[in-house]
UniProtKB/TrEMBL annotation:
<keyword id="KW-0560">Oxidoreductase</keyword>
<feature type="domain" description="Mannitol dehydrogenase N-terminal">
    <location>
        <begin position="7"/>
        <end position="227"/>
    </location>
</feature>
<dbReference type="Pfam" id="PF08125">
    <property type="entry name" value="Mannitol_dh_C"/>
</dbReference>
<protein>
    <recommendedName>
        <fullName>Mannitol-1-phosphate 5-dehydrogenase</fullName>
        <ecNumber>1.1.1.17</ecNumber>
    </recommendedName>
</protein>
<keyword id="KW-0520">NAD</keyword>
<dbReference type="InterPro" id="IPR000669">
    <property type="entry name" value="Mannitol_DH"/>
</dbReference>
<dbReference type="InterPro" id="IPR050988">
    <property type="entry name" value="Mannitol_DH/Oxidoreductase"/>
</dbReference>
<feature type="domain" description="Mannitol dehydrogenase C-terminal">
    <location>
        <begin position="236"/>
        <end position="365"/>
    </location>
</feature>
<dbReference type="InterPro" id="IPR013131">
    <property type="entry name" value="Mannitol_DH_N"/>
</dbReference>
<dbReference type="InterPro" id="IPR013118">
    <property type="entry name" value="Mannitol_DH_C"/>
</dbReference>
<dbReference type="InterPro" id="IPR013328">
    <property type="entry name" value="6PGD_dom2"/>
</dbReference>
<comment type="similarity">
    <text>Belongs to the mannitol dehydrogenase family.</text>
</comment>
<dbReference type="InterPro" id="IPR036291">
    <property type="entry name" value="NAD(P)-bd_dom_sf"/>
</dbReference>
<dbReference type="InterPro" id="IPR023027">
    <property type="entry name" value="Mannitol_DH_CS"/>
</dbReference>
<dbReference type="Pfam" id="PF01232">
    <property type="entry name" value="Mannitol_dh"/>
</dbReference>
<dbReference type="InterPro" id="IPR008927">
    <property type="entry name" value="6-PGluconate_DH-like_C_sf"/>
</dbReference>
Length: 427
């Protein structure tokens, strides 16, 4: 039996939620809170967790070795098809928070996620369950607003919609922790890892770095003391979303396209290449100039990213990152470029942004067999086709010239004859 209060209901339990939300909840001081977890639709994850009393091993994988701890924050696990358990959990007076990790697709038209939330909220209203916070932990800008809009769109009953407006808050959050897929070797390795749960079949592996910036919009709604575990409560998460998008995600996109062109497979390999590292630093310089955060905080974030990217034991493949770049580049790279030009039209295109756009262009045209992106231009595309996809308003002579010049430098760097590498070739 657990003495944890089952105050959190989580939808979409998976590796990230167990390495992030559950970890923070376990490490928060004060009253111990528990999580009632629901899968998407498949019962597999719920069955596997229930078979070991919902306890599991979190393996923190640093460059110099692994550290294990047992996480016991989840107090119950249900398949997403158990609608009765879902309604009961959301309606319970002990529940004050519902969290979600359902990926971006869960918020789109046609997804059943908003309808499931509305169903739970209707049960809560009928039970007079009181105020509640719905917190998205998905990588969406202004995810609280996105979630609110999705719930409103799925609420046909005007009386229920009015109740939701009065009783439900939707705090936005920025979350970060790389959580690679658990392998059979990871499971087998637990036998020799001190602190691991004996016989664990569903461990989670994560990098040492973890971050959660949460909008302080609970309006008296009870919650764990997450700030005691390192959660940053702020009035507006926007600057922190921008920091993550422009520094981490932007450089990931750059490393993915450029790294693949230069023969690399993982982020760690690409970051160890001086040509990639120099381009990343340029991109970060350009982003730092547009971020509304103290310079010291931006410098700390950059230093942390260098360490994270260089961790060779977190295998983050470039092919995984480069997929879907047509939708990613506008918010990760082009947004910074557009702000730079709006702030100072004479600033021109920075070399980091030019390299990122050029690298994706060459990725699409010179290695089309690696492209997994329905929005990408075809293998015969020119720079105008690329800009039409990610930045049609920036199809100007200065931008075209800058991207074209960057592409020429990348072609030289990626040439087969690499006996003498010019580490500054992309500058």
């Amino acid at each position: 039996m657990t003495d944890r209060r089952p105050g959190i209901v989580h939808l979409g339990v998976g590796a990230f939620a167990r390495a992030h939300l559950a970890w923070y909840t376990q490490h928060a001081t004060g009253e111990p809170w528990g999580i009632t977890a629901f899968t998407g639709r498949s019962p597999a994850a719920a069955d596997a967790l229930a078979a070991q009393d919902c306890r599991y091993t979190l393996v923190t994988r640093a460059a110099d070795g692994d550290v294990a701890e047992v996480v016991d924050t989840i107090v119950a696990a249900h398949p997403g098809t158990d609608d009765t358990a879902w309604r009961r959990a959301v309606a319970s007076p002990t529940t004050s928070i519902v969290t979600l990790t359902v990926t971006e697709a869960g918020y789109r038209a046609g997804s059943d996620v908003p309808a499931r939330l509305v169903d739970g909220l209707a049960a809560r209203r009928a039970a007079d369950g009181g105020r509640i916070a719905l917190v998205s932990l998905d990588n969406l800008t202004h995810n609280g607003d996105v979630l609110r809009d999705a719930v409103h769109a799925a609420t046909a009953d005007p009386d229920l919609r009015a109740w939701i407006d009065d009783h439900v808050t939707f705090p936005s959050s920025m979350v970060d922790r790389i959580t690679p897929a658990t392998t059979d070797d990871d499971v087998a390795g637990l036998a020799d890892l001190p602190g691991a749960l004996p016989g664990d079949r569903v461990p989670v592996v994560a990098e040492p770095f973890v971050e959660w910036v949460l909008e302080d919009a609970f309006d008296g709604i009870d919650r764990p003391a997450w700030e005691t575990a390192g959660v940053r409560l702020v009035p507006d998460v926007t600057p922190f979303e921008q920091r993550k998008l422009w520094l981490l995600n932007g450089s990931h996109s750059l490393l993915a396209s450029l790294g693949l062109l230069l023969g690399h497979e993982t982020v760690a390999e690409a970051m160890a290449d001086p040509r990639c590292r120099a381009a990343v630093e340029q991109l970060w310089d350009e982003a730092a100039a547009e971020l509304p955060l103290p310079a010291a905080e931006v410098d700390d974030a950059r230093a942390a990213l260098v360490e994270r990217f260089a961790n060779p034991r977190i295998r983050h493949t470039l092919r995984q990152i480069v997929a879907g770049s047509a939708a990613k580049l506008p918010v990760r790279v082009v947004d910074v470029l557009r702000r730079r030009l709006d702030r100072d039209p004479a600033a021109g295109v920075g070399p980091g942004a030019a390299t990122a756009l050029a690298a994706w262009w060459l990725h699409c045209t010179e290695q089309p067999e690696l492209v997994d992106d329905p929005g990408a231009p075809g293998p015969d595309s020119d720079v105008h086709d690329v800009l039409a996809v990610v930045a049609p308003d920036l199809d100007t002579t200065p931008v075209v010239d800058a991207v074209t010049a960057a592409a020429d430098r990348i072609r030289t760097a990626a040439a087969p004859a690499r006996g003498t590498v010019d580490e500054g070739v992309l500058r």
